[in-house]
Each structure stands twice: as C-alpha cells, then as structure tokens.
Amino acid sequence: MGGNGGRPGAYGGRRGELDVLRALVVLGLVFFHAALVFSPDDDFYVKNPQTTGAVTVLAGFGVVWAMPMLFLVAGLGARHSIRRRGPGGFARERLLRLGVPLVFATVVLCPLPQWLRRRAADPGYDEPYPSFWGRFLTVRPDLADFPFVLDGEYFETGHLWFVVLLLAFCLLLAPVAAALAAASGRLVPVLGRRPALLLAPALPLAAVNALLGMEEGFAGWNRWAYLLFFAYGFALADEPRVREATSRAAVAVGVLGLVLFAGTAPGFVAGDDPFTSWDPPALATRALFGAAGWCWVLAILGLLDRRRQRSAPDGPAPDTPATDRGTTGRPALLGYLAVAALPLYVLHQPAVVAYAYGVVGWQAPMAVKYLVIVAASLATILLVYELLVRRSAVTRLLFGMRGSLVSGRRHGESARRA
Q1: Could you report the per-residue pLDDT of 61-77, keeping only the tens digit for each?
Q2: Which helix (H) or strand (E) holds 150?
Q3: How many Cβ atoms from other residues are within 10 Å of residue 408's Cβ?
Q4: What are the beta bridge partners of residue 150?
Q5: Exposure on the CB side of residue 125, measured as CA atoms within 13 A
Q6: Which of 53, 114, 135, 162 is least crowded, fewest Cβ atoms below 10 Å from its Cβ?
Q7: Percent of residues in the chain assigned helix, strand, coil, to nearest 5
Q8: Is the pLDDT of residue 331 over 90?
Q9: How far is 325 from 221, CA to CA, in rounded Å?
Q10: In whole angstroms, how far apart are CA 266 and each of 121, 179, 242?
Q11: Where is the Acyltransferase domain (predicted)?
C-alpha cells in the first residue's frame, strides 16, 4: 500500500472527532449504568425489584468496545501532549488534570453510592451520612491490587477506576514514550505494506484476557488489556498510513469483530465462570472477546475516518483542540460536550445511583423508571457542569479542566488562527 489516494494530508491532523466520540461514550455511560439497576447479574449499588436478562445481552454490545475506545483515545491524546510538553511536562500535567479530580471526587462523591447501597440493601440502616463518610475514608495502603493502592472496609474508587488506571498508565508511559514512539515509527511502514498486520494487536489482547481473566469491576476487561489499548492509541492511532489502511479495512474488520463476538455467546450464556475459569471453553470465550474488542475499535476508527473524508472531500485541515466554545468544523454542542467529558464522567455515577435509589420503589413499569433515571441524571450532570464546574477557576481545577474559562476561550481562538 502506498500514498493516500492522491489527497495529501487527508489523514493528517489531530483527530478531533475522537474527542466527540469520547464525550458521547461518557454520556452513554449514564444509559449503561442506569440499565444495571435492572440487570439480574450485576452487583450494582441499587437494584429494582424486577429485573430482566435483556440488559445483560445489550450491555455486552457496549462493554466490548466503549471503555477500550476511551483508553485508546487517551493514548492518542498522550502522544500529542508529549509532543508539546515533553515527558516530564506531560507527567506533571496529567498529575494535575487527573490526580486532582481523582482525590477530590474520591473524597466528595464516591462515598454517596456506597452509603445508598447500604440503605437500599437494609431498610433498617439509619447511619447518618457524615458518620459513614468518615468510615469510608478510613483506609490503609495495599499494593497488592496495583494501581489501586488504598483499601478499607467501606472504601472504593467506584467508577473512578478509569481515572486511576489512566493516571497510572500515563505515569508508566512518560519514561518510555520516546522509545515507544521510535518503535512505532519503525512499525508504521511495515503496516503500510501489509495492512493485515493491523489485526495483530488482537492477539496480545486475547492472551491477556484469557490468561489473566476478565474483571467485572472494570467493565468486563482485564485492567492490563486497557494498558494495551492505551499504548496502541499512543503508537498507531494518529499515523496517516495506519489511518488510511484502517479506513479501507473498516467494514471487513467490523464484520470479523461481529463474528468473533458472536462466538463468545455460548461461553457467556452457558459457562459457569467465563470471567476467571481455566476450563478450555472459558479461555476461548475470553480470548474471542479480547480479539472482538480490538476489531470493533479498529472498525470504528476506520469508519470515522471514512465519514471525515466524505464530509471534506478536498482533505480537511488539521482539527483544533476542543474548547469551551466548541471546535472548528463541528456543531457547537458537540464541541461543548467534548470539553466536558472528564467532568461529566466524574459526576455521572453518583447521580445515577441517587436517582435510582429514589425511583426503584415506585409502582411503575421498568421502562418508565429507566427513562426517569436517565433523564434526571443527564439533566443533573449537565446543569452541575454548566453552572457549578465550568464557570469557576477553582472547580475547573477540581474537575480536571484546563485553566480558566477565559483562558480556554483564548486558547481556542489562537488555535483556530494558527
């Protein structure tokens, strides 16, 4: 394979559409976690008296690609950040933009779902929230579950596991970033000549999931599989020759992913313990799931590039970073959501659990309860973001946003002029 179809720069520039996809995945987590209230299989914080197995089936179509895509997009962002700041500056910036929200949300937001879990499970439980909050924060060091290095009887990171892993991966990446970038530079020409090798990353993912086991608490993937997605995003996702090959193969790879995913159905439906068992069917199920996840992520990346080229047939200008006023070349709402991704992620699960706690006791159909939980949670996190997070320099810092609102706008304007 050679060239790019005669359109110089057609696959160049920052992939701003992935910022939007990340935000849409985060909003989709509201729908996903609200659905777990009605799932018979998941140990979610609050459960509806009536459940349906349909939730488990539908959830599988999301978990196979959604969180892996978030880590891959984060790896791509890390590549751009290291180019601008260098490894040391990148590590400091990630400690600020991920570490501060992690500490803040762990202390302020994470105790609420655990407290509501106890109240939902035991109607006689009447411990005041301030008292439980203190017990929740009673922790001890525990390195056995790295990178989750704190443990306690009531403590958990909850949905912030994504932020914990992402911060750990960024800090692991910083000292080896130059070597990984050099290795990817040597690999890209090979992928250009042999596009079938784009499927090769499926093999380590299949091996990690099969041999280390799938972890329900991390959206069904092994935590170290996410490190591979992050590394693949850093090394390959922004290379023009890789993007061109991915775009051409998107449909075929997507079909392969569907076939592989369908192959997991017998193991997940009939297996006694498909997540951790060492019997051959369980190992095969986990391996197929890992390979299917890579195929789906690869197909989505390729299809997004196809859409990008159709919408700009002469070759788009490089995308500018998302800002509070939106992004060049896309609707303002999508740009707004792209900037809001991390704050919305941090806010979403406590909102879902709180509304679910109030709704599951209603005498209403499951569909009505579900829609109320989703609508109320979306409205709440968007309003909190707009009115309490993005308008203050202090809250922007606490939720991992860049600078002040004014400086963010100036940054966007200078990027558009560049």
Answers
A1: 899 999 999 999 999 99
A2: strand 150-151
A3: 20
A4: 141
A5: 13
A6: 53
A7: 70, 0, 25
A8: no
A9: 35
A10: 32, 41, 34
A11: 17-385
